[in-house]
Amino acid sequence: MGAVLEQLEEAKARGRKLLAVLIDPDFGQDEAVLERTVQNACMAKADLLLVGGSLLTSAAFDRCVQRVKELSDHPVVLFPGSPAQLSGHADAVLFLSLISGRNPELLIGHHVTAAPTVKAFGIEAIPTGYMLVDGGKPTTVSYVSQTLPIPHDKPGIAAATAIAGELLGLRAIYMDTGSGAERAVSPEMIAAVRQGVGLPIIIGGGIRDAATAKALCEAGADVLVMGTAFEQDPELIFAMSEAVHG
Ligand code: 1GP
Questions:
Q1: Other CB atoms within 10 Å distance of the CB of residue 10
Q2: Is residue 98 a contact partner of residue 130, using CB atoms and an 8 Å limit?
Q3: pTM above the 0.90 mark?
Q4: What pLDDT, on the 0 to 100 scale, is given for residue 57?
Q5: Which atom of ligand 1 is nearest to the CA of 203?
Q6: Which site from 2, 32, 123, 135 is most exposed, i.e. has the minimal number of CB atoms within 10 Å?
C-alpha cells in the first residue's frame, strides 16, 4: 500500500479527520496567490494538498504541481480532471472512476490513456470511486463529465453505488457536489455510505463554513476537500482546520 492511502486508512482507524486543500492550477497561476495558499495550508496544519480541476485553461499544470511540492512537505495528491493532469512531481494520484455516471470514458477510457504515464512516473495511484452528487446547480464537473449527478435526497442510491465500488476493489470513495456548488453532500447521504462501506470517505464541493464541516465529519466523512472557500477567503482555513481536527 502506498503512503498516502496508508495515511487515509490510519486516520480513519483512529477517528482523526483530515483536511485537504484543493488547488486549482488556473487559480495558482499567480505565484503570490499560490505561495499564500500553500503557506496558509501548512500553517493551519492541513493534511493534504490536492491539485487539479475539471477544466484547465492554463498549460502550466506540471509547473504548478512542482511549485506546490517545493513550497511544502505535505503530500501532494493529483485530483485529475483529465489524463493531461498528471505530474511526476506529485506523491500520489486519485485514480478516479466516475462510478455515479455512465460515461465509459470516465469509467475506464481515460484510465487506459493515463495508466502508462502513471506507471512510468512511479507515483502512488489510489483507486477511487468518484460520485457526483447534485449540489443545487450545474457545475463544471457535471457539464464536462456529461453525467447525471445522484439526487441530493437519495442516500440509498449513493450507498448502493459506493458498495458496488467497494466490491469492485476500489480503495476510497470521493463524493462531490462539484467546485462552487450551492450545497455540500448531506450528512444523511454520508451516513448511509458510511454504513455501507468500510473505505475512507472523501467529501468535497460547496463546504464554506465550520458548522457544515463539523456536521459532515460527524456523519462519517474521513477527509474534507475545500477549494473555493479558501480562494474567496484565505484566512478561513484556520477555522476550518479547527472544525475538522477538533
Ligand atoms: C471540487 O471537491 C472539490 O471538486 C472542492 O469544491 O471548490 O466547492 O470547495 P469547492
A1: 11
A2: yes
A3: yes
A4: 72
A5: 2
A6: 32
